[in-house]
Amino acid sequence: MRPYLRAANVTWNGISLDDVKEMNFDDCDFETYRLESGDILLNEASGSPNEVGKPAIWRGEIEDCCFQNTLLRLRARGIDLGYLYWYCFYSALTGRFGEAGRGVNIRHLGKRGLARFPIAVAPHADQERIAAAIDEHFSRLDIVESTLNGGLRSVAALRTSVLADAFKADGTAPQDWQRTKIGEVARVQLGRQRSPQHHAGPQMRPYLRAANVTWAGLSLDHVKQMNFDNGDFETYRLRPGDLLLNEASGSPNEVGKPAVWKGEIENCCFQNTLLRLQARYVDPTYLYWYCYMAALTGRFGEAGRGVNIRHLGKQGLARFPIPVAPRVEQECIVTRLQEQFQQASECESAMRLALERTHALRRSILSDAFSGRLVRQGSDGGPVSAMLERIGAGAS
After folding, report:
1. Which partner from 137, 251, 316, 347 sits 20 to 30 angstroms from 37, CA to CA?
2. What is the predicted pLDDT for the residue at 195?
3. Under 8 Å CB-to-CB from 57, ≥6 apart: which residues?
4. What is the pLDDT, as a whole number, of residue 395?
């Protein structure tokens, strides 16, 4: 039994060794598939064209490690290792490896496809300079992206902190706050079960399911239909102001994720992967933000049942505790949360836009590197762009 790498171990940031599996390699197979420091490993296939051929360099992190057939191995011969790696990185990132692959849903590059893939090879001295220039630029971008990602994590933590403080999640609610259960302040209902007899019928109507509920609100790109007779339609018809929550999830922090229905689709119903809350004795928006907090912090998930999939259920939601502030204070809490979340969203959008620009800049750097624009002067005194153009013309 020997350790081996597979496609899951190859990431855009290098080799991931969090989950390395083992299988039996006899001595002959071991010699064939043993990894050596400096080997480049590429994803052989992917459902995403921009993931095919994604490369990483093996540095000998694990002794006597091999690789599986979801990976392809390259060993540089007469070419700078860094130059070859970055060329593969560029070809994967831009989808060129994916375009060269075969297959429809899953694109396979294959050994032959990779072997036939064209590459413009600059003189060795220029290869080293090109690779070094990419390394330098990407190192700077790594620092920028690390800072931006840290900022995004801070915004996420701020949201959680703001919500916990608003609803006194630490148990320090004032004496004039009522301590009750969600079922006492809102009507709780589970959606209609989807079953084969409802797949077709004379009264087909749109319905929402868990996939339609996101942290940013309702996603209505893919709304399905099933048959609701008049009785079921009256029972499960959505009304503006209804609060919809994910009934279950494999992630505790997704259980109970809420969104508000605003009547976007006429005569729309909901399925039993969702729970509906209709506020009765509490401000509906206050109830929404409280559910948002309980979902985001994993409290709904902790209250659910099940192991791999946590189910909140109608009874679990109805019994879930809620601190109810006086009505005027409810309105103040809602206003404050909306303002703070708006500010957080603006900061988050600015940082995500900056990240998109760094990603675009990486592509631009790689494009310049392999078109001769990143390094000004070739080792022979001529421009690298002209040299690569000659090489490319010869290769074609």
Report:
1. 137
2. 86
3. 14, 15, 38, 39, 40, 41, 81, 85
4. 40
Give the pair of three-digit tokens for residue 54.
């994604």
CA 134 from centre of chain: 27
CATH classification of 1-119 is 2.10.109.10, yes or no? no
CA angle 89/109/64 to nearest 5° reads 70
Can you give the pLDDT at residue 394?
A: 41
Phi, psi of 341 (to 5 degrees): -70, -35
| Separation between Cα atoms, residue 65 and residue 4, nearest integer Å | 5
Both tokens of 1, joined, read 């039994």
Distance, C-alpha 103 to centroid of its chain: 25
Please state which CATH number belongs to domain 179-323. 3.90.220.20
Residue of 205, 196, 200, 208 lying closest to 242 (CA atoms): 208
Q: Tokens standing for 114?
A: 């990779």
pLDDT of residue 197: 87
Rounded to an integer, what distance in angstroms lies between the CA atom of residue 143 and that of residue 137? 10
Cα–Cα dist 179/379, whole Å: 77
For residue 10, the model assigns a pLDDT of: 98
Residue with tokens 């990240």, as numbered in its chain: 355
Angle at 379 between CA 375 and CA 381, to 5 degrees: 90
Phi, psi at 154, each rounded to 5° = -65, -40
User: How high is the mean pLDDT of the chain?
Assistant: 94
- pLDDT number for residue 386: 54
Q: Using 70 as the pLDDT threshold, list the residues of the chain that sit under it.
A: 377-396
